[in-house]
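Here is one chain, start to finish.
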Amino acid sequence: MNLRFTFLALILIFSFSCNKETKKVEKVSQADDSSSELYQISKTPLPSNLNWESNLTDPIYSSPNAVKGGSYNSFIDSFPLTLRVVGPDSNGGFAGVIRALQLSPTDYHPNTRKPIPILATEWAHSKDLTTIYYKLNKKAKWSDGKPLRVDDFIFALEMYKSKHIVAPWYNEYYTKNFAKIIKYDEHTMAVVGKNPKSSEDLHYYYGLGAFPKHFYNLSKNFVKDYNWKIPPTLAPYQIDVVKKGKYLTLKRVKNWWGENERFFKNRFNVDKIKYTVIRDQNVAFEHFKKGELESFGLTLPDFWHNKAKGKIFDSGYVHKLWFYTKSPQPEMGMWMNLDREIFKDINTRKGFSHAMNVDKVLKTVLRNDYERQHNAATGYGKYSNESIKARKFDLKKAGSYLKKAGWEKRGADGIRVKNGKRFSVKVLYGAKHHNDRLVVLKEEAKKAGIELELKLMDGSTAFKAMQEKQHDVAHSGWGAMWKPQYWGQYHSANASKPQTNNFSNTNDKELDKYIDGYRLEFDSKKKAKLSRQIQQRIHDLSVVVPTYLIPYFRQAYWRWIRLPKDIATEVSDSATDPLGLTTGGLFWVDKKLKSETKEAMKNKVRFKPETIIEKKYKTKS
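Its structure:
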């Protein structure tokens, strides 16, 4: 996954250390910031005092036994609404696949967390920590054969700043955080930021990805024109066939430029990847048991404990894996929409929080396999505020807060009423397997006099509706990042606007102050303190009910899927992710074993059953 797609920024006025080494020759576009031009072409050499770095020493985590070939069949529960990486509807459930095809100059080693080369071979930074220099890999080329050039990064910056992409978040971030790109030659550039960052964060915040300039036409029709066009890629895979509503396939790029690069070698091994739309997890599991899908996630307790049994498991045709990870946790919760009149009163929000019996969900439906999440950033070390504890189910406290908010009376059905209106809220969610969890919350909430109206939507449609703020309560989650990110979800700049990720419409000046400070701060100790203060303020405002976290992944896979000795990395979310830039593409298909397994099934030949429970990265409690 490319890390460059969800960041934070704030304008800071300063003079750039590299201004003396460059001469402005052309203005491409002023986009949304009239004081900032997109790039400069250098008329002088690179600064001579740069300390160039690379990383060809961190351990390789792929297997030398991996072989190329075969297919990997997976599924998605809803068809994407677009193939664009930015703009309307681009944040749906399939976005992870599309964004995995977007590469940046560097990324982070999944186990050491140190920068590793991706599109760049070397890098350096300015003394004032505002600028990062890159020497691009001259082997890198797009899947249509065109070479990668600095111009592709310049175009990316132009695109992100342009109103034509209809993506306010990107416009705001790239305009206010990126100053320009300095082009020294076709393969050497400097990305100049407006805010100093720590040396470890420069890659993350200013590691701009590339877009193929020769493919795109940035015009007012951009969104419509590129809704379903397939762009060339720098990644090992290219989108191939798109059968709307049914499936998508990716094919391995022939003679991919990165084939023998240190951290790509023996990875991304299958020739074809197919994602079939199967809207029901249970139906998908039946496809898996027939051998039509290569692997299946068993994180859901019902699948691990109850359904992953029977002949194919007992006969050793399918293996099971429980792999503990050591990574930041996604933020999972129920976000209350503060633009709804019912949630404007903080007492109502606190009462609602105490009426959600998350612990009962954990004990019953989830069989104590999951853990309670307590704050907005779990697993980030010093950046996490571990003193915060989520509000527990407590009918007495719920009643007290609701009484303060004027919800004292109850109707004949037991639901609270105020000024003739019932305390009934719509909970929007996008995964069918969450039904049982929400039904428990619904029944328990009735005891507090609250009615939850459960509204299930297709995953992509649900996310779009949440971005459009069509919910009372959004039952959802956010993927974990390199460091906690708050601006998109909690800053007032994104409140009460469509197509933003502030699902709660939080608009709080004190919280804004902390978030703005966090965005500017590059001293790690001060930044960590601000992070903890942000989490405390989010808790105090009671805008979200944290639900649960899962410090591991579980899955089943057919025995012809082969894995490296170490199986996965510290931060993997699957052993059979085919695309993840730093954690994926580690497995391979053994065609001989596949034939052997198919034949054994016909002849009722059994193999030794295999269940792996790997705890080497498990955090000690």
